[in-house]
Amino acid sequence: MIAALSLPHLLLADFGLSAALLAFCSALYAIPAALRKDARWLASARNAAIAPFVLLTLAVACLEGLLYSGAFGLQYVNAVTSRAMPWYLRLTALWGGQAGSLFFWCWLLSGYSALVMLRNWRRERDLQPGVTIVLMVTLLFFLGLVIGLENPFNKLWVAPGGSVSAGILQPAGALPFAPADGRGLNPLLRHPGMIIHPPMLYLGFIGFVVPYAFAIAALVAGRRDDAWIRVTRRWTLVAWMFLSLGLLLGGRWAYDVLGWGGYWGWDPVEIAAFMPWLTATAFLHSVLIQEKRGMFKHWNMSLIILTYALVVLGTFLTRSGVLSSVHAFAQSAIGPWFFAFVALMACVSLGLLLKRWELLRGDNALDSWLSREGLFLLNNLIFMGIVAACLWGVMYPIISELFTGQKVTVGPPYYERTTGPLFAALLLLMGVAPLAAWRAGAARRLGRAFWKPALVAGLLPAGALLSGITQLAALLGLWLAALVACVTLYEFYRGAQARARITGSGFWPSFVQLVLRNRRRYGGFTIHLGVVLMAFGIIGIELFQSETQATLAYGEQLSIGNYQLRYDSLVEFPAADGRVITRATLNVNQNGRLVTQLFPRRDFFTDSQQPMTIPAIYSTLAGDLYVLLVGWEPAGAGGATFKVYVNPLVNWLWAGGLVFIIGTLVATWPERHELQTAAERARALHLPARSVTGGV
Amino acid sequence: MPVLTMRLLRFPSRFALVLMVLGAALFWLPASVLAASATPTDDEVNAVASQLYCPVCENVPLDVCGTQACSQWRAIIRQKLQAGWSASRIHAFFAEQYGARVLASPPFAGASVLFWLVPLALLSAGVLVLVRVLRKPAPAAPDLAVPVSAAHAARLERELDDWR
């Protein structure tokens, strides 16, 4: 007798699948309904665009129930959970594999769509059909992939011959099959960073579908104003914040788990997530120009279309297996569909843009390249340069394999050479642009404003030079980061000073007032300060990382920098969840004084036969001492091999990330007058204020 | 004996030369013997390995990869270093054995030349376009042609600063 799914599991699986199918039908109905030029049909389309969220929430709840209770007769549950896994890992296994993460993608997109329908409906009526259609088409595509090709509700079946297959429907002659235990989540993903990182990344990715939907709707409706930008401004910022957070958490996870002493390896998967971030950052800057000066309308449209295309492309690159080889892509069920969808959406969007090209002529021409808007355009071009370099690096191995049959690796040397100078140029612009005036771009005036901060910033590389640092890249990097810091801090100071003069209150109250009164501007400057801190961290680890490796017997020691590490002991013990842990103890002396004990370890997951090297880290503001246990003799006393890195200033990177996110929050938070107008509108409509607080 | 001393003293330069050659030989011989026999340190092996990728572990540099296969590759690197091979010769050896994909980036040779030329071409094209656009005189802004007094301009700047 072969074990089968229990009845509650069977019911949950079928209920979840039915809810997903209904969500698909509802989204499908919304499209023709939105196309009707009739208010009642449009209202119906709106409801049909909200319904998928309710239905998919039910379906996700069902899948979570199945994951939690260990329904190992389902292919997905079997692949990502096991009895030994703790409850929270079983729940977060929802995004631990292909089918689940695509399903999670759909659920988040349906959530965003519902929020748009609920919050942004009252404004801009002529955009509503377009927005509804774009959101639902995207949802239909992903939901179609999930239901048709990567269904998380697929059941396992065993044929009379003993071969196991997966599918929704029972193959002829086959019997349901439920193994006693699942295979369990990939050990590399059993980390807090990996639990939060994918949802953040997805929230960011999917968030950009909303401004894209509004942009396309504006093109369809033939609007030439920037309403679509104003309505989605906060959406874009929220999406951007989540994506930034996702990238940061991913970096931290790599640093803590992958055990190679770094946070960013120019891996194609990382770059796939980085590219939409780059275009979105360019977009956030250039929409400012459209709002203030009515310029760059084509450019902004192109940027948001590109961001959307890169979001789908990024999901495609990471999900289709095309990165490991062209053959894996050809074999993957979803690859060709993804490819077709990206191509279709890009063609339709660009076609629409060309159709409205004349309509979107700017209200003003660019007066000077040294004006604020000129420098912003330059900033955008540099961002595009980085995107182009990244895209070429990611695509080249695919192109090479396709045309020459030869597989190649495009690794850090390429990316560092191509993007390094561009990032430096971005820092320079970050220091110069806040000093430039709108419109007028007199070189003399800019020069007058520039020389003082440039000189003050020069003190840092001068100090570094005196302390013996002679690397040109480091000195230049330090100068640029210091320049941005000077200019940005001076902007804060000047604003607060001016405010203090006007209001007569003290400097610090004026400072707080200033930031609160113009959150977008000063939130932006806070983000720049975050970037400065991150730049210091990156300069530290990229240019001054040192490493050494040695095999030590008990009591022996190795030295790196001003640290001495003495190997004391090695223990091996099993953990509750099926791991075998081998842990070394090292005493760390700094300049001859004992500062800490470190416990680098190797976890071996017996069920998946997978080892995992967990670093031990001694963190200070000056840098990290990062120790890996890379090997040992069975007896332990015979000797263990340690790889030790000193990563100078790396914690500035994480601190900078925190400042960055705080800055984004400041910029995103609704300003008081917006809340007031929302409240006034609510009073006029006799509605509670909360329901009309404007776009998220 | 005195004759020899006299001769050597008569040719101080030749004497010095002989001494130098002897000295150099003394220093050089053990050095080369040592180089061939001393085991390369882990750091020397890692320095070479960090520029290589094994074909199985995608995107993990060889110096940090924990698999059995990668540790065998590192053992090969150690042997080659011990035999006096240079880093670039070892890289070329692995590329010949396993294909160009083991290198951290495509070499500037063969079909991969194109890989390096495309970004260069893009960059030059971008710079060219920028230069052309920059050279073009900015369209005259009629409202800026109106004479503005210095005090007025300063006030305008101030107010603009406060406003933005």
Architecture overview:
The complex is a heterodimer of chains A (696) and B (164). Chain A is an alpha+beta fold. Among the domains of chain A are: 185 residues; 109 residues, Tick-borne Encephalitis virus Glycoprotein, domain 1, CATH 2.60.98. Chain A is built from 22 helices and 13 strands. In chain A, strands 5, 6, 7, 8, 9 and 10 form a 6-stranded antiparallel beta sheet that branches. In chain A, strands 4-13-12-11 form a 4-stranded antiparallel beta sheet, with helices on one face. In chain A, helix 9 runs antiparallel to helix 21, helix 14 runs antiparallel to helix 15 and helix 17 packs antiparallel against helix 18. The longest helix of chain A has 33 residues. Chain A starts with 6 loop residues before the first helix and ends in an 11-residue tail after the last helix. The C terminus of chain A is likely disordered. In chain B, 15% of the residues are buried. With 164 residues, chain B is mainly α. Chain B contains 8 helices and no strands. Among the domains of chain B are: 69 residues, Helicase, Ruva Protein, domain 3, CATH 1.10.8; 29 residues. The chains are: A alpha+beta (696), B mainly alpha (164).
Summary tags:
heterodimer, A: 696 residues, alpha+beta, Tick-borne Encephalitis virus Glycoprotein, domain 1, six-stranded antiparallel sheet, four-stranded antiparallel sheet, 22 helices, 62% helix, disordered C terminus, B: 164 residues, mainly alpha, Helicase, Ruva Protein, domain 3, 8 helices, disordered N terminus
Write the layout of secondary structure elements.
The complex is a heterodimer of chains A (696) and B (164).
Chain A: H1 7-35, H2 39-69, H3 75-80, H4 87-92, H5 98-119, H6 128-148, E1 155-158, E2 164-167, E3 175-176, H7 192-207, H8 209-221, H9 227-258, H10 268-293, H11 297-319, H12 326-331, H13 335-355, H14 372-404, H15 412-432, H16 443-457, H17 459-466, H18 472-503, H19 507-517, H20 519-544, E4 546-552, E5 557-560, E6 563-574, E7 579-590, E8 593-598, E9 601-605, E10 610-614, E11 616-620, E12 623-632, E13 640-648, H21 650-668, H22 672-685
Antiparallel strand pairs in A: 1-2, 1-3, 4-13, 5-6, 6-7, 7-8, 7-9, 9-10, 11-12, 12-13
Chain B: H1 2-10, H2 12-37, H3 42-49, H4 68-82, H5 87-98, H6 113-135, H7 142-145, H8 150-163
Helix pairs in contact in B: 3-4
